[in-house]
């Protein structure tokens, strides 16, 4: 069984796929910050993530058989508190929801903060830490939730 994780919480749009043996796919596209700028406004980040997701989702499903996907996880908000919100999370959440609905799969929403906490728990998994950011952690969390139940 395969599990997909999607993350749009940082300056990289990312999607990953894992199974019980480890990483199956890891696709990332960095956001573009113009020279001389210090970062991106949320609206620009959301726009770029939305464009990038169309590209990397297509790449993922050209190598992964959707019939073998058992669940989707996404970093849906900054932290697990009421009213925790940033627009960039909408891109990942929308795509994850669409995939989960289309394939009749469970969707697990995690947070950017939970991703950092999970990273501390996976330090010993050096071979699997080639994935960056919450994408790995979201997909891994989905795998752990499904296999431990």
Short description:
The chain is α/β, with parallel strands linked by helices. The protein is 43% helix and 26% strand.
Give structural attributes.
five-stranded mixed β-sheet; single chain
Describe the structure.
By secondary structure, this protein is an alpha/beta fold. It has helices at 42-63, 88-103, 112-121, 133-148; strands spanning 2-7, 12-19, 22-30, 69-77, 106-111. A five-stranded mixed β-sheet has the order 3-2-1-4-5, sandwiched between helices. Helix 3 (112-121) crosses helix 4 (133-148). The longest helix has 22 residues, at 42-63. The model is unreliable at 126-134 (pLDDT under 50).
Please write out the topology.
Layout lengths: L1 E6 L4 E8 L2 E9 L11 H22 L5 E9 L10 H16 L2 E6 H10 L11 H16 L1
Parallel strand pairs: 1-4, 4-5
Antiparallel strand pairs: 1-2, 2-3
Helix pairs in contact: 1-2, 3-4
How much of the residues is beta strand, in percent? 25-35%
The coarse silhouette is globular
Assembly category: single chain
| Largest sheet: number of strands, sense, barrel closure | 5 strands, mixed
Span between N and C termini?
Answer: 15 Å
Uncertain ranges:
126-134
Number of helices: 4
Structural class assignment? alpha/beta
What is the strand tally?
5
Radius of gyration: 14 Å
């Amino acid at each position: 069984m395969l599990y997909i994780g999607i993350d749009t919480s940082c300056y990289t749009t990312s999607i990953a796929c894992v199974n019980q043996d480890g990483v199956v796919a890891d696709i990332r596209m960095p956001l573009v910050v113009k020279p001389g700028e210090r970062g991106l406004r949320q609206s620009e980040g959301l726009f770029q993530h939305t464009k990038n997701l169309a590209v990397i989702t297509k790449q993922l499903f050209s190598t992964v058989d959707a019939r073998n996907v058992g669940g989707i996880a996404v970093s849906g908000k900054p932290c697990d508190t009421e009213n925790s919100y940033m627009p960039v999370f909408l891109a990942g959440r929308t795509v994850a929801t669409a995939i989960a609905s289309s394939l009749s799969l469970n969707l697990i929403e995690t947070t950017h903060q939970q991703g950092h906490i999970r990273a501390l728990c996976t330090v010993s998994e050096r071979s699997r830490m080639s994935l960056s950011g919450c994408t790995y952690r979201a997909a891994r969390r989905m795998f752990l939730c499904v296999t431990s139940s």
